[in-house]
Amino acid sequence: DVKVTQSSRYLVKRTGEKVFLECVQDMDHENMFWYRQDPGLGLRLIYFSYDVKMKEKGDIPEGYSVSREKKERFSLILESASTNQTSMYLCASSPPGQADTGELFFGEGSRLTVL
Amino acid sequence: AQSVSQHNHHVILSEAASLELGCNYSYGGTVNLFWYVQYPGQHLQLLLKYFSGDPLVKGIKGFEAEFIKSKFSFNLRKPSVQWSDTAEYFCAVRVYNAGNMLTFGGGTRLMVKP
Q1: Which residue of A has its CA nearest to B3?
Q2: What is the pLDDT along chain B (114 residues), one digit of tens a residue?
Q3: Of B42, B51, B106, the CB nearest to A41
Q4: What's the CA gap between B30 and A74, in Å, rounded?
Q5: B-chain residues near A61 (CB < 8 A)
Q6: CB of B13 within 8 A of CB of B113?
């Protein structure tokens, strides 16, 4: 089974703090994604990556950055957390090309509260 | 950019009732369509998907969905729900040959009363 692991399930941070959310997948997937999930808004794509050191902006990248130094790891960074970034953050991965079933494999989520 | 609409935000049903959750998308070209489910406290998982062929697709746990191209719809159905179907359901669309980016709807929270 594909396993996508998010290092922190629950975090509480203060406004202005720098926040790191880590995600690791164990299936050698090229594609990795960060979404945020908010009630009534579904999942919105923040950033995605097709390869190591490669990143692309999603629909709501403002206030976020990402890092992909190794294939299995994709980190989401909030440089200066704000209260409107309080949310559930979901990491996902998927294989590319011929192996692409279109299915995303999700982690369990990191619930961030910014005070 | 494509958008996905799920018109029912909250649905409450009794066990054995029939279920239909609506999903409409805005893109006019070739799309891949998905339904994901998130059970309480668990991660999102794929329920079913449509790529091509028979527009009626069957997924896990007795769910099915019908792709109606003329209506830009991909509604999810189940003839008889169970208490264990209580979950949040997300419809998602991916534009064909445009990478792996899925656009998700706002979700429908289903509660099944025992």
Answers
A1: A44
A2: 678 999 889 999 999 999 999 999 998 778 899 999 999 989 999 999 999 899 999 999 999 999 999 999 999 999 999 999 999 999 999 887 666 688 999 999 999 998
A3: B106
A4: 30
A5: none
A6: yes
